[in-house]
Design brief:
Low-confidence stretches of chain B: 1-92, 703-721
Oligomer: heterodimer
Helix content of chain B: over 70%
Strand order of the largest sheet of chain B: 1-2
Distance between the termini of chain A: 55 Å
Number of strands of chain A: 5
Radius of gyration of chain B: 28 Å
Mean pLDDT of chain A: 80
Largest sheet of chain A: 5 strands, antiparallel
Order of helices and strands of chain B: HHHHHHEEHHHHHHHHHHHHHHHHEEH
Shape of chain A: globular
Strand content of chain A: 5-15%
Largest interface: A-B, 93 and 97 residues
Order of helices and strands of chain A: HHHHHHHHEEEEEHH
Strand order of the largest sheet of chain A: 4-3-2-1-5
Chain lengths: ~325, ~725
């Protein structure tokens, strides 16, 4: 090899070496470390999983971070978990946290529904290590981190399902794009987009559905469309208000101040705002009936119906 | 036939043998699966039946968090169909994997596929500009272009056999190490695989036909056009091949056209034309040209550094310049294509989009920003050094310091992370997810603005390089009809681009409170259209330089400064409008580049030369700039390959077929860096070896050079030096 080729080779190796150094440096900066695999059981890894792979943030917020209201706010969770453990006769707060993940329906926080999926099952399928990392992160929310204590629960956490995901199959296969059109089609007697936001499109009367396909099953969509009152997402319960004049209103609370209440009520398929002064309210209580029309099944064709389900399923 | 030629022939033949075996083995081993999939697919297509009643639910039958069969519709034909479909679905055996002699299968596949992709990018990118260079040489009567086009094709011919061999190895690795995954892919794409094999033959025949008939098809215009048409055919086959394989790769990211549970193919068309197919096609097409240009530039640099004579130096200096020119030409639209691809990733799966820009992969874009910054700095540095070989360039060197400032400023903004790694406590203290200061530089609004500025700055570098040795100009009014037609055509093209987009923005379907945010975009497009008209008018009035200044100033004000601010507003208040804003930004910058380039060409068309270009008079460091560009683009391709593939996380086919192998985890950045580094070393080593082989034969033939010249050629190769 002549001199110029040696110099060229040295230059090439230097540039590639610089690149490798940058990746190692950025890996350190990003907190992913220099190991062979991402994560490990640490609060940092758990925080990433909480806001990423775990999809936890779709339903839970933490103080000012996130805006989801389907599940309880996890701010100060570690402190609360000790109290709950005492309530339920569990030895420690960590037992409560583990139980909430392994068997989420065993204890439901008052005011919330049984909607939390088992995160080791499809479609989320978190590995055992990732769940332990999330536990480490949750422990730091108002409590002290104790990794060795967490690791003792290793065997209690099921390993992620290795079965192939077998999604539900609609009897009528309709393209998700067709369903999207139906969802936002305002020429129809019923338009989902008038009350639900998906990726910034639509109106935010009901719960936002962006990314809903990643956390909910098609069965849930079928039920929510045909029997909207069966499960009402926390924060979207219908309020029944009677004014001192005896006028009744059913609707969602849009905003509430000391002086007035703004309700969103459905009138012939349209959503209207009603402002009621607080002083005029004689009675106000939560209803167990959703504001979402219960006759959507009658207003959609079979194809449109499965199109919407297919579209919601695709929102991953 | 000498030994070297024999060696080359053996390499090429071995590739064909591999391909030949592959084309037989694939259909044979998988024919059962292929044919088994056809009948159910037909049934599925007949599935939709009119009058199917909607499912009815009984109280307490549903469970929102389970996937139990109870959750399915309970009455009617639809239910029966669903139950029947469920009954058909027997428990599928778990995904099976094999190891590669005890080595991590993913690592093996990662290296082989990336090497194949890199060679393929070169093999697909180079013919595009080889044919263009040949046409330029033929139409201009300049033989040196023809010689260079042939030299490009010589490299191509040598690299092609290696690409095919790596493709064969990749196929065997995929079928051997990931059998179930490939079973699924074959079920869906079997018909296209035969087309692929046929098109590969087409590419091989046209490539070797194109290269080996170079000398035979000289002499008459008819022969030359026939030769050029062979080159065009080569490109068509190559592009077709790339589009086909892209459909497979993009299907893995955004699967469509199948029943996810069973893999039944409902529509092969939709499986191919999945949401990410066209964005990836366009991005790769441009990136391949860029890649090919920079690799050719590095080849020329190596030859320049090893040149023994001034003549050799001059030739390879010129070749390096052309390679760099091609690389830069393709590099400029690449960010726009990349943005489109990124946007479509978000559209097809918001979760994947978040993983890409805000999740596990967001830090890889910091590394990408460093690499792209290195590319732009390298390109500009090479152009500035190149001005040293042009007499008269001293008049323009004063601009370089400002350009350096602008480029490094852009680089700094581009490097600013989208979000600093804040802990939950820090987020709570700040009260929002973004850092209060860095958010103005880290979000897409800022990054889009500086991308456009860096492109404008690089274009400005190119313009001052172009006019370095140009002196007194012939007034435009005396340039004749060609100049007028040229400017007028560019004007019409730019107006069509700007005005048609402005008109289309009036009809976007958005809610009224969001649509108001579109109005400033429409106004910006009309302002730019007016400025383009004004620039054309000024050029006709012999004030071309003023026209160019005006275009640069207005474009920078609108596309960089104003949209930097406005995009931030849009992000906060009407995020949906951001996609229209980006296209507006691109259109405005593109109109500036096109109009400015055309004005420059005609303004300096017959200008007096204040000095010649002394090809070969380049400092050694300029050649290292070319080498840097090549190494960086190869690294960049490796990095982007990792990102594109890694976005699927632990899915072979996103949301359809899960990766349950032990290698399903996402590697850390440092591990990725080491693997990509290794791949780059292997690729550059192989390229060097293959090019060395290709040149062995040439050394013996050099004793008897064969020169030819087209009728009407103004100067031959020697006279240019």
């Amino acid at each position: 090899m002549n001199k110029s080729m040696l110099k060229i080779t040295a230059f090439g190796i230097a540039v590639i070496g610089f690149y490798i150094y940058i990746t190692i440096y950025v890996a350190g900066l990003s907190g992913t470390g220099g190991g062979e695999s991402a994560g490990g059981v640490s609060p940092e890894a758990g925080e990433k999983i909480f806001w990423g792979d775990g999809q936890c943030s779709t339903c839970h917020k933490i103080g000012t971070s996130g805006s989801a209201t389907r599940g309880p706010d996890q701010d100060g969770l570690a402190g609360r978990s000790e109290e709950r453990a005492k309530e339920l006769g569990l030895p420690t707060g960590l037992d409560y946290l583990v139980e909430s993940i392994v068997d989420p329906e065993k204890y439901i926080v008052k005011g919330y529904d049984k909607i939390m999926p088992k995160v080791f099952d499809p479609p989320i399928m978190l590995s055992r290590e990732k769940i332990l990392a999330v536990l480490a992160y949750l422990q730091t929310l108002g409590g002290e981190l104790d990794i060795s204590a967490i690791m003792k629960y290793k065997d209690k956490i099921p390993e992620a399902s290795k079965k192939k995901v077998k999604p539900w199959v609609a009897p009528v296969v309709v393209d998700a794009k067709e369903g999207e059109k139906v969802f936002f089609d305002e020429t129809r007697p019923v338009t989902c987009g008038k009350c639900h936001v998906i990726n910034g499109r639509g109106k935010k009367v009901g719960p936002e559905l962006t990314g809903i396909g990643a956390i909910q099953t098609p069965e849930y969509f079928l039920e929510s469309i045909l029997k909207p009152s069966a499960k009402i997402v926390k924060g979207y319960e219908t309020m029944y208000v009677i004014t001192s004049d005896g006028i009744p209103y059913n609707g969602l609370i849009k905003s509430e101040t000391e002086e007035e209440l703004v309700l969103l009520k459905e009138e012939s398929g349209e959503i209207e705002e009603v402002v009621i002064p607080k002083s005029d309210i004689a009675e106000m209580k939560k209803q167990e009936v959703s504001i979402m029309p219960g006759n959507i099944g009658e207003l959609l064709s079979v194809r449109d119906f499965y199109g919407i389900v297919s579209f919601l399923q695709s929102l991953k | 036939m000498n030994n070297v030629k024999k060696l080359l022939m053996v390499t090429k033949r071995s590739a064909f043998v591999l391909l030949f075996i592959l084309s037989f083995v694939l259909p044979l081993t998988l024919s059962q699966k292929i044919f088994a999939s056809e009948a159910p697919a037909q049934v599925a297509q007949e599935g939709p039946v009119s009058g199917v009643p909607l499912p009815q639910f009984e109280g307490g039958q549903m469970s929102g968090s389970s996937q139990s069969p109870e959750g399915q519709p309970v009455t009617g034909v639809g239910t029966e169909t669903a139950i029947a479909a469920a009954a058909e679905e027997e428990e599928v055996a778990p995904v099976q994997y094999r190891t590669f002699f005890g080595i991590d299968s993913r690592l093996v596949l990662w290296i082989v596929s990336e090497l194949h992709l890199m060679f393929a990018a070169f093999v697909l990118g180079v013919p595009i500009f080889a044919v263009i260079v040949e046409i330029v040489g033929f139409k201009g009567g300049d033989i040196k272009y023809d010689k260079m086009a042939k030299e490009f094709t010589k490299l191509l011919s040598a690299a092609f056999a290696t690409t095919a061999s790596l493709g064969g190895l990749l196929g065997f690795c995929l079928f051997g190490l990931y059998p179930e995954f490939m079973g699924h892919m074959t079920n869906v794409f079997a018909p296209t695989m035969y087309v692929y094999a046929l098109m590969f033959f087409g590419e091989a025949f046209t490539l070797y036909g194109y290269y080996y008939s170079w000398e035979i098809l000289q002499g008459t215009a008819a022969k030359k056009w026939f030769h050029i048409s062979l080159g065009v055919m080569l490109n068509l086959f190559g592009t077709g091949l790339m589009f086909l394989t892209n459909s497979w790769a993009t299907y893995m990211m955004s699967p469509a056209g199948i029943v996810p549970a069973t893999g039944k193919v409902l529509s092969l068309y939709h499986a191919m034309y999945n949401p990410l197919w066209m964005p990836v096609n366009i991005h790769r097409l441009i990136a391949n040209v860029c890649f090919g240009g920079f690799v050719v530039g590095a080849y020329a640099a190596v030859k320049f550094l090893g040149a023994k004579t001034e003549e050799e130096k001059a030739h390879y200096d010129w070749m390096g310049y052309v390679g760099n020119f091609i690389g830069v030409g393709a590099l400029i639209p690449l960010p726009f294509a990349g943005y489109w691809l990124g946007r479509e990733v978000y559209s097809s799966s918001p979760v994947m989009g978040n993983i890409m820009m805000g999740g596990a992969f967001s830090w890889t874009f910091i590394i990408q920003a460093i690499l792209i910054g290195m590319l732009f700095i390298g390109v500009n540095y090479y152009l500035w050094l190149g001005m040293g070989r042009i007499k008269g360039s001293e008049r323009y060197t004063k601009f370089i310091k400002y350009l350096i400032f602008v480029i490094f400023l852009c680089f700094a903004v581009w490097l600013t992370p989208h979000n600093l790694p804040l802990s939950g406590e820090e987020r709570a203290m700040i009260g929002e997810q973004y850092h209060p200061f860095s958010k103005y530089f880290g979000v897409m609004a800022a990054k889009n603005a500086v991308v456009n500025l860096i492109i404008l700055a690089t274009f400005f570098s190119f313009l001052i390089y172009r006019r370095s040795n140009k002196g007194e100009m012939v007034p435009f009014s005396e340039q004749g009809r060609t100049g007028k037609i040229g400017i007028f055509s560019a004007l019409i093209f730019c107006l069509l681009m700007l005005v048609s987009y402005a008109v289309s923005l009036n009809f976007v379907e958005l809610e009224a409170n969001i649509k108001v945010f579109v109005n400033p975009l429409i106004r910006a497009l009309y302002i730019q259209a007016f400025v383009v008209c004004l620039a054309a008018f000024l050029t006709f009035k012999n004030k071309g330089k003023l026209a160019q200044t005006l275009l640069f100033a207005v474009t920078a004000c609108i596309a960089v400064l104003y949209f930097w601010y406005y995009a931030f507003q849009v992000m906060q208040k009407a995020n949906l409008v951001l996609r229209y804003l980006s296209v507006t930004q691109v259109s405005i910058v593109m109109s500036c580049l096109i109009m400015n380039a055309i004005i420059d060409v005609f303004m300096f068309r017959k200008a007096k030369l204040v000095g010649g270009i002394v090809w070969g008079k380049m400092p050694v460091r300029s050649q290292y700039a070319l080498l840097l560009l090549c190494i960086v683009i190869v690294i960049l391709m490796g990095l982007m390959g990792f990102i594109r593939s890694g976005l699927r996380m632990d899915w072979h086919i996103y949301g359809v077929l899960q990766d349950t192998s032990p290698w399903a985890y996402t590697p850390t950045l440092s591990y990725m860096g080491r693997v990509v580094g290794l791949i780059v070393v292997l690729f550059l080593g192989l390229v060097a070896f293959v090019f060395w082989l290709a040149n062995l034969g040439e050394k013996k033939e050099k004793a008897k050079p064969k020169e030819y010249k087209y009728e009407g050629a103004e100067e031959d190769y020697e006279n240019t030096h």
